[in-house]
Amino acid sequence: MNRSLCIALTLVLLAAAQAPAQEWAKQLFKSHSHDFGTVARGSKTIYEFEMENVFEEDIHIASVRASCGCTIPTIKKDTLKTWEKGAIIAEFNTRAFLGQRSATVTVTIDKPFYAEVQLNVKGYIRSDIVFNPGTVNFGEVDNGSPAVKKVELSYAGRDSWKILDVRSANPHLEVELNEKSRGGGRVAYEMQVRLTDDAVEGYLEDQLTIITDDARLKNIALPVEGRIVAPLTVSPGSLFLGVLEPGQKVTKQLVVKGKQPFKVLSVKCSDNCFEFKTTTEAKTLHLIPVTFTAGDSPGKLVQTIEIETDMAKSGVASCTATATIKEVPVSKTQPQPRTAMTK
Q1: For residue 301, what pLDDT band results from cuts at 50, 70 and 90?
Q2: Is the bond preceding 112 in cis, omega lying within 30 degrees of 0?
Q3: pLDDT band with cut points at 50, 70 and 90 for residue 233
Q4: What CATH number is given to the structural domain containing 96?
Q5: Cys-Cys with 315: which of 33, 117, 308, 311 at CB 3.0–4.6 Å?
Q6: pTM here?
Q7: How would you list the strands of the sheet with 45-52, edge to edge?
């Protein structure tokens, strides 16, 4: 009897110890649930659960799985160093499933410690509305150039069904809606979606909200995606220099690309711990070595590197450099507390 009691107490203590141990892994994610709302059959419906490694140790994601086939999870980046960002991508399977759906996505982490994090998604997939294609994908668009995409929407149900409005919070998206046919319980529309020429450079991840006269399910989301490319780009946009000891030196490389040959006039940074090497040659691609020497001040360092070129339009580009400087121990004979997983 005593032995059984000891085993029971041991299991309780292990369960209690494991629960708070999982909490550190939850800190990696900005959100743990998402509601897709009402979406049309066949529409491309994706949500990224953003994550950032706020700890000193490398994080490794071993696997992801979903409790329902209505959601397909993938790992954007399986290994994250300190301050690196990644995501778990959850895609709603709107072609094979209909109606109200929900799923739990379990993320398994095996390094530096074992942990599991559960993410939840839900949404309603309408069977009576179909988009073709399932997303407004502009692809890659040059900055300053307008772009237009067409989407067909078909409805099966009642002849009187109508689209009342199409809205977007993005001021750079314009929609022209045309009714193509109506009758026999079917209604068809064509939408022309325009991206204005003053759209901001970078990735476009937005949505259109279609407002209908259906009192039960009034709003339907249509994803919009693309990339507005600048005449001059710097890669990587965020340069991670590492976790360094004071005085430690590291060299990384920036890739600067243009659509036509150009010269690099200068590379500037307000921190004198940075050194840059450039050439005077005009070419479409420049490789710029960046050498950083860590200072004595511990903590996270964030600096902007600005590259000036002779290009007439948008001839200046920039990137953000980050590093973490370790704190020098007060005494080598005295052990310092470990704070990596408690930040």
Answers
A1: very high
A2: yes
A3: confident
A4: 2.60.40.10
A5: 311
A6: 0.57
A7: 45-52, 85-92, 71-75
